[in-house]
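anyone seen this seq b4? input:
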Amino acid sequence: MKKAILLIGATLCALNLLAQNFTGQVVDPTGKSLAFANIYSQNRTKHTHTDENGYFTIKDIKKGDSLIISHIGFKTITRVYPAKNKLLIIKLLRSNIQLRNVVIQKKMDALNLFSDINVQTSPVQNAQEVLLKVPGLMIGQHAGGGKAEQIFLRGFDIDHGTDVGISVENMPVNMVSHAHGQGYADMHFLIPETIEKINFGKGPYDADKGNFTTAGSVDLQLKDNLDESLLKIEGGQFNTKRILGMLNILNTKKQQAYIATEFNSTDGPFESDQNFTRSNFMARYNAKLSNSNSITVSASHFTSKWDASGQIPERAVADGSISRFGAIDDTEGGQTSRSNIWLKHTKLLRNNDYVKSNFYYSNYSFELFSNFTFFLADSINGDQIRQYEDRNLYGGQIEYGKELNLLKKNMLIKTGIAYRSDQSRDNELSHTKNRKTTLEQDQYGDVDETNLSAYANAEIEIGDFVVQPGIRFDHFNFGYQDKLNPTYDPLSNEEVIASPKLNILYNYNPQLQFYLKNGKGFHSNDSRVITSQGVQRSLPAAYGTDIGIIWKARKNLFINLAAWQLYLQQEFVYVGDAGIVEPSGETSRRGIDFSIRYQPKPWLYISGDANYAYARSLGTPEAESYIPLAPNFTALGSVQLLHPSGWFGGLRIRHIADRAANEDYSLVAEGYTVTDGNLGYNFGNIECGLNIKNVFNIEWNETQFATESRLRNEAEAVEEIHFTPGTPFGATAYVSFKF
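predicted toks r here
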């Protein structure tokens, strides 16, 4: 008996020595840590993934066992557990996405797989088009290419950003109390080739996201380094030109630096040339100061100038007064610029805990001339308006993350604080003539607005479940000094809002995940409105719920299906074009989102997104409860080819259905289906390509509004659809050189 006990004990000891917990880190070719890489044992019975710092621990691994390591956009490799138990650094090389290597993990941002696939498989021609990579999001341009695009998402006409929070590495893009409209988000300061990844979320479910995050949020991550330097030259129809240069200055194990610059110009398809120009510059430096410290410093500047033909009334086109690409007032247009500097710092602590910090400063200017109503208010000089502001924006965020094992449950706690200050000087709305003469100042003053926030979030693993409770607190100080008031009388107001969140996901297996998300969000109102017009609510809340699945139905097929609802306490909409607030009361939206990503061949990618939304105002008669311009059905699809022979190309289709342009649906914003395409060949260091807009040359209206206007020869005003025509068939060719 004693011999048997000793034999069993010796065997257990030997097994214990052979089977150990193995720790490693996964990095990219430059040594940057890769979060959420997948690690499998050879027989796939054991699985884990890296944390936000690239570290992982896989249990009960024996010396000599093989591990399979994969990450989206990188080559899958196999590594043998080393004879010596030490931290293994695993470096992955970049490659085309292979869906067969992607698994669904126990983390709340698994939906980002769908945008990752879009970003890495299909081209974009400007930074704003990157938003089309977010499943279900649509955009439209209606002012000459220099103005921020109009955004549509989940039954919202978001205008330029009122209900979607947009940021670049936590530096806000949305502008509060903007001269043109609340939440204005101009992303044109970004060079599209510098964008690495899109983190997005639909609904108000993330504790680290605050103002404007009701329909959703988008955060763009930029490349820390360049594999190669690049020169790209483009040209095409409508006198379109683009030059891009990206220079790799430094690329070592511990330091990377590059600069990127581009110049764009076009006259556009309009009868009156747009004379559009935009210049961008960005510099970025990344350093690993030690094994536990890294820092990234970025700086950028952009300036843009353009003329615009504006939105034109249907009646003027119907009677032949102007063509679809004509204008009633072709003196519209503007200029804008933005300079940024931002810093990120990551400090790794013991046990994979971390502190992440980011700080930013922006100087921003904006001037826009518009004429929406022509001669409605002023029958002699016309109704042209000027909107202007000069802004300084600065702030930062600090987040602490800690891993715990409490009651035998793995837990990640995240807590953070953030601060933002906007100082908008000479914020102006004026009645002007011919972009030269100021006839009357309607609004003129200084905006000072601050936002202090704190949040806490937990991710608790309970078997195959992950429970994520969270809470966020925001304090706002709204200030406005009206310079048209002869007496110095600064106005101010303070508001506080708490936003609880609760998300639950269930990983049935690495191919199927169910999730339930609940949360409260908000969008703030304009400081000028809050301080001077006494609105009922400064921070109207939004309450949302999502229930859905992410399913890897086959080794190369991903599906997302979700049902959602969103209730808004009150939609106070600041109309920057008139300097007034339009309270629209409570609203309710509900819908279904469907996305699919399929890779039938290693070089062929198929994607599709279909989104239905039912949006209505509450407390109004049913026949008058439509929310103007709220999209009820949108769809985006693409087929992209990335063949190893060097050929690449694809088709991308976007569709939006007819929708109500006013509250009783007596005016209809017509839907459209537009197809864009690209084709090219990669010779190695040289690439040639062709991009085509509107392949089938259909007539479509890119943006539409129900507007009351009066033409010079009209005795009475008319309310009808005013539109900006969509781009006709247009082709641009390019050649790029890597060195």
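Residues 2-18 form the longest helix (17 residues). The longest strand covers residues 437-462. kinda curious what u guys think
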